Amino acid sequence: MITLYGFGAGFGLPEISPFVTKTEVQLKMAGLPYRKERAMPPASPKGQLPFIDDGGEAVADSTFIRAHIERRYGFDFDAGLTLAERAQAWAFERMIEHHVYWALVGARWVDPVNFAKGPAHFFDGAPEHNREKLREDAQFRVAENYLLSGLGRHAPDDDVDLAVRSLFALSVQLGDKAFLMGNRPCGVDATAFGMLAGVLSPFFESALRERAEGFPNLTAYVDRMMDDHYPEFAWTPLRQAA
């Protein structure tokens, strides 16, 4: 039995982290039994979530977990794709994880209202005398990484404009297909779903979310993926929430 370590439900989502969501959906795609446990990043071999324990072997980072699943269990997440399509799927995955992700970080962590509503509560269990200092330090570190990513160097409207160009690329790629690369899901769909669900969750108000809602095929895609992989989760379809 594989054990998946993640943050758990929150922010109106079945899993707070888009990267944990990616791995969980890929485990479901591969049909592998697993159990899920809550953990914090310091518990991971790489200091980040997700990580898995597979028969005593710890594997950290969602991309390396996918490679582990493919190698150990012989499951090809991109079965049926041509070599060119596999390359395109990888390029979209990199765009999602290294561009859209940082826009999501800005909306959750840098925006003071959203930070107070969401990530600040990660520290509710800390000793009261040290709680605010931990919150301030964490927000500062994340904001610093946001700046170093490049996206945080722009004015708020400009960084959203850049992120929307990536959302537009995803919308064009999806078109009227069921999934990004065709009529069956592949590895990049787990990545896209995790990130888009995070962006579109009604829990947070943000310019990024408002702009993302302008792509009806992306909102329908998130609803469809949620129905497929988290049918038990109390998710209000985005078409109704809008």
From TrEMBL:
<dbReference type="InterPro" id="IPR036282">
    <property type="entry name" value="Glutathione-S-Trfase_C_sf"/>
</dbReference>
<dbReference type="InterPro" id="IPR033468">
    <property type="entry name" value="Metaxin_GST"/>
</dbReference>
<dbReference type="Pfam" id="PF17172">
    <property type="entry name" value="GST_N_4"/>
</dbReference>
<dbReference type="Pfam" id="PF17171">
    <property type="entry name" value="GST_C_6"/>
</dbReference>
<feature type="domain" description="Metaxin glutathione S-transferase">
    <location>
        <begin position="165"/>
        <end position="225"/>
    </location>
</feature>
<protein>
    <submittedName>
        <fullName>Glutathione S-transferase</fullName>
    </submittedName>
</protein>
<dbReference type="InterPro" id="IPR050931">
    <property type="entry name" value="Mito_Protein_Transport_Metaxin"/>
</dbReference>
<dbReference type="InterPro" id="IPR040079">
    <property type="entry name" value="Glutathione_S-Trfase"/>
</dbReference>
<feature type="domain" description="Thioredoxin-like fold">
    <location>
        <begin position="18"/>
        <end position="114"/>
    </location>
</feature>
<dbReference type="InterPro" id="IPR026928">
    <property type="entry name" value="FAX/IsoI-like"/>
</dbReference>
<dbReference type="InterPro" id="IPR012336">
    <property type="entry name" value="Thioredoxin-like_fold"/>
</dbReference>
<dbReference type="InterPro" id="IPR036249">
    <property type="entry name" value="Thioredoxin-like_sf"/>
</dbReference>
